[in-house]
Amino acid sequence: MRRRLWRFPGGLRLPGHKAASLELPLAEAPLPERLTLALRQHIGAAAEPRVRVGQHVRKGEVLARSREYVSAPVHAPTSGRIAAIGERAVPHPSGLHAPCLELEPDGEDRWLDGLEDDQVEQPPSEPAELRARIRNAGIVGLGGAVFPSAVKLTPGPQTAIDTLVINGVECEPYITCDDTLMRTRASDVVAGAALLRGLVGAAHAVLAVEDNKPQAAAALRDALARAGEEQTGTLEVREVPTRFPAGGEKQLIKVLTGREVPRGGLPLHIGVVCLNVGTTAAVYDAVFRRRPLISRIVTVTGPGVHRPRNLLARLGTPVSHLIEQAGGYALERARLTMGGPMMGLTLSDDALPVTKATNCILVEPERAAAPALPCIRCGACAGACPVRLLPQQLYWYAQSGQFDKARTQGVFDCIECGCCSHVCPSNIPLVQYYRHAKSEIAAGERERQRAERSRRRHEMRQERLAREQAARKVRRRAPTREGAGDEGQ
Amino acid sequence: MLLASTILVNNFVLVKFLGLCPFMGVSRKQSAAIGMGLATTFVLTLSSVCSYLANEYLLAPLGLEYLRTITFILVIAVVVQFTEMVVRRSSPLLYNALGIYLPLITTNCAVLGVALLNIQERHGLIDSAVFGLGAALGFSLVLVLFAAMRERIEAGDVPISFRGTPVALMTAGFMSMAFMGFAGLVR
Amino acid sequence: MMAVLALTALAVALGGALGYAAIRFRVETNPVADQVDNILPQTQCGQCGYAGCRPYAEAIAAEEADINRCPPGGEATVIALAELLGREAKPLEAEAPRVPSRALIDEAECIGCTKCIQACPVDAIVGAAKQMHTVLAAECTGCDLCVEPCPVDCIEMVPIALTPENWKWPRPAVQWLEPEAPRCAEVAR
Prior knowledge:
The structure holds 3 protein chains of 3 kinds.
Chain A: E1 27-28, E2 35-38, E3 48-49, E4 56-57, E5 62-65, E6 74-75, E7 80-89, E8 97-105, H1 127-136, H2 149-152, E9 163-168, H3 177-184, H4 186-200, E10 204-210, H5 214-227, H6 229-234, E11 235-240, H7 249-257, E12 272-276, H8 277-289, E13 295-301, E14 309-314, H9 319-325, E15 334-338, E16 345-347, E17 360-365, H10 380-384, H11 391-399, H12 403-408, H13 419-423, H14 430-477
Helix pairs in contact in A: 3-5, 4-5, 4-8, 11-14
Chain B: H1 2-9, H2 20-25, H3 30-62, H4 68-90, H5 92-98, H6 109-120, H7 125-155, H8 165-179
Helix pairs in contact in B: 1-7, 3-4, 3-6, 3-7, 4-5, 4-6, 6-7, 7-8
Chain C: H1 2-24, H2 31-39, H3 53-61, H4 74-85, E1 101-105, H5 115-119, E2 125-126, E3 134-135, E4 155-159, H6 184-188
Antiparallel strand pairs in C: 1-4, 2-3
């Protein structure tokens, strides 16, 4: 087993603010009056609805199926009636609406037939079947990136995986949902990790926890000890030094294995697969209990709620409902963030629903953003960047519109952690510039591909017309009794 | 020695102030600057040798030294035309990027200056070639550095009245001062 | 006398060498037109005055046409062409470009005359005589050449809807600069 830990460059030491939300035990949030389920709570294509308005559904029933490969289905978090299918407000930086299903709970919370008993069964041994179960359960990365896990767990026949990393690091301030999960369901996490290790064929699996979570680490070690010889031989719990963003996939892999994910590459290219602890617990539920992903732990915290805590919330619950469960607002005017203070998304109002990506609701006092000053080229940003990019150069290129240069400088390797803008003495919103550059470049790529297709079609049309022209000439020169109507224009 | 002196200490652009026109004109993009540097190196070295030969074997024996300037211009013009043909064939984009500055290498005072200086310093054939090569390398070095700096400056927040040429000229001035630091490098 | 002869001899010799070089290094094709064509948006709308993007690209490469005649390409295309060719970037000749749209045929009104199919430069309309016509939205470039020929006026240009998928992060506002001051790069071009 490895003894050594490596360091990643840059990063920040941030105040944790985690104690407040850990005082109260985890509780299940009661059902709200309405659940709003977005058809796209993951990276990839949206799921397609398989139910009608007015249809009665059971808890765990498939509401929307995934057609494309990189996609995930959506399940009913409780039993009830489909109230509507249409565009609704979803948590997205654009503030635009997206297709959603609205479910009105009937209060009975009845599972689909066959899922009522909480039996633990033996998982299938066939990897394809395991992957199918994970896929059909709608499991996506619950660390916030929401990548369909079945796709991540299918590295392909050419790729050899030697290490599985289970990410329980949770490096962002305020967020404690993974900590809570590890403390309360450590044995499920260990069982899930063992299963996943076998599925990807890795020789070792590491359950990584930040050293500010001693209870979680102890709980995992206990569970591991109880799990038996086979597990303790191939799984281990490692504590990593607390430093933001140690929980970033690429940074964590560097810390644990010393390997760096190549630029523009994926962890599987260096033989590693990394999954969040929440995802692992969801895999356990899907494989050992046949239960789909219908709820997740959400940390509701910040100075703006009276009783910060962790809540097990059904997907689609309005944020306002959760804030109520956390004792309600403690501030007159509050700013809501989905996620943490570094990488979170500001929510425009509290009627927005919880999605698979919602790890935390942070309620803070409303404050105007400090105005940005000119860049003084101090270089503090480069020192903080965990990916060893040059944020200052990226900034200059992004703000002057030279996106191709930004791309060469590696803007797509930026993990948008926010370390650079955090340390900037001029308060420049650096990450917004990089996001702007990335979306402009991506849009430009799409345009270029469209233009290429249009050019091809135009050329083919010219060829077709030339062919028809030539055919007509031939017919005119040798007039035979041929019927008209074969022009086919 | 001659090479180091020509490239750094007595840099043609920043110390002797010859060849400023293409220096300012082609330094907007680094790719064009590199191409221009290569073209000028080719022209300078070749014309340096050709003009030496013309002087040594045509003008001197016939006592026509007073025709030196016009002969050299003729030689340089031909070499530049030849270079233009080669560039046009090998890289039409570079040809378009350099635009008018490619034929203007003919009037680049650095090229004529090198040819005349070779005679003044009484360089032999090898020395002439090396002198020409050194001058061209110095020119290319400074051109590429300047282009890189201009690209960086263009991305930044320059005050409105300074944008474009004014800040470029100021940069060139600072570079020149920096290069004067090489004085005394070659004894 | 000697001077004239010597110089003439030199000139003739060099001229001869140059002439030989001109023949040996002749340039046949014009790959610049390909590079220009890659930058143009391929709408094939003809607003530039040429019959499609390729003829316009060749005209630009031959220096017969100016680079600011493509409204669908917008300012970005003019700037890209200016950078590629080393020419000056001018403002667009035409009026402000339209909002990107896609053609939509009202199927209830369509009489199946095939006039729009013949007009579409990228064959994005599917149909046949006396059969229903419909626009393949994924292939439509929004050039709007099909709207005119339709005798029952059943084709409408519908602006492309903004969804979370095609939404772009906006550039952050810069508070310390006056809003109308141009950025350095735009002026320096």
